[in-house]
Amino acid sequence: MSERRTAPPTSAQVADMLRAVIDPELGDNIVDLGMAGEPIVDPNGLVTIPIKLTIKGCPLRAQIKKDIESRVETHPGVTKVKIEWGEMTADERTAVMTRARWNAREQAGDTAVPNSARVLAIASGKGGVGKSSVTVNLAAAIAAKGFVVGVLDADIWGFSIPRMLGISDRLEAQRVEGTDKPKIIPNERKVGSGLLKVVSTGMLVEDEGTALMWRGLMLTKAVEQFLNDVHWGQLDYLLIDMPPGTGDVQMGLARMLPRTDLIIVTTPATSAQKVAIRAADMARRSFLRVAGVIENMSSFTCEHGTEYPLFGSGGGEALANEIGAELLGCIPIENAVAAGSDSGNPVAIDGTGEAAREFAKIANSIIESTVSNESLAGCSARTPEAVAVQVKTRV
Ligand code: ADP
């Protein structure tokens, strides 16, 4: 007497089972993420499932395998599950990251930062590479084009933004219409037809000694507070001066403002470039897009016109190539940059030298690359595919 076996599931039914398998890092199921290919089911109940991992050595491989087996093998018509492992192409990886970013955006809570503002976090692998100088000058150069630019100084251990912009007034809180508790009012400075709105974590601590005791988590909380409790009002851009090297703030930002783009500042030295790669790697893991690399302290040109690459050369370009991002520009070493920061008048505001020109050029390319927010806001455009197209042009 032949034993009656349950019929094997169809390929579509297996795909449905796979929709229950979630990649915990990417926050979505393996079918919609494009990781699972079409399952092949043979009449004897053998199910072959092609799975493409984002990278070959993906640490989640074992877990994904277990999840697939436990979902599919329990079907009475399945005799065996065979997984064919593969690796995604660069294009496929980009599409997956775009989708993961989209999911993160959908899940993020509200902040006081208006949705229309493009958020750029300025990061570096280590201190002293000129990250704060780049932040203030870039903010000033963008504001000079007529935009409202928020500057959040999250570099608690080296807070210098208020001094560099000549705005060191204490922050005040005020009751704002439509809110139930007082909001922190940023300090403002006009630049041409634009405006800078500045808040600094440095304004939260008594002195730099106190700042040294701050832990990453405390800092993340402070940044969270600035994002939630500052009355930013109208804002076209928000530039965040990140603390060097710490992952906590970056992870917090990725959770609260997943649309944040990272700009990585490095010097031309290869040692700086190596540490900067870590910042880029962290960005990838938290799905933040790297908008580009800025090389600072590129070279020094003496009064006779001879150029000296004091800190080596090519580090910015090498980093940009390595992480697949654009080299946005190279800022030379100029006394005017340091003097401008010391006097509270960034060189980008009224400087005439090469550094000022380079900051203006980078500001232009950032403005040009900013996705038109209207194209993201309309209801019909709020599909992952439409966003994917928009974002892909910027990945
Ligand atoms: P970070 O924020 O990375 O710690 P800073 O922006 O505070 O670095 O810069 C460190 C020092 O280098 C400051 O004294 C600053 O004025 C100086 N500096 C930064 N960039 C330049 C430049 N392109 N030319 C000359 N001096 C610079």
Task: Explain what you see.
The protein has helices at 11-18, 61-72, 90-107, 131-143, 161-164, 208-212, 216-229, 247-256, 270-285, 315-323, 335-343, 347-350, 354-369, 374-377, 384-392; strands at residues 22-23, 28-29, 40-41, 46-53, 80-87, 118-123, 148-153, 172-174, 183-185, 187-191, 194-200, 237-241, 261-266, 289-301, 307-308, 327-333. By secondary structure, the chain is an alpha/beta fold. It has 2 domains: 11-106, GMP Synthetase, Chain A, domain 3, CATH 3.30.300.130; 118-391, Rossmann fold (3-Layer(aba) Sandwich), CATH 3.40.50.300. The strands form 4 sheets. Strands 6, 7, 10, 11, 12, 13, 14, 15 and 16 form a 9-stranded mixed β-sheet that branches. The protein has a 3-stranded mixed β-sheet with strand order 3-4-5, covered by helices on one side. The N and C termini lie far apart (62 Å). Residues 372-395 have low confidence and may be disordered. Bound molecules: adenosine-5'-diphosphate. Adenosine-5'-diphosphate (ADP) binds next to helix 4, strand 14, strand 16 and helix 11.
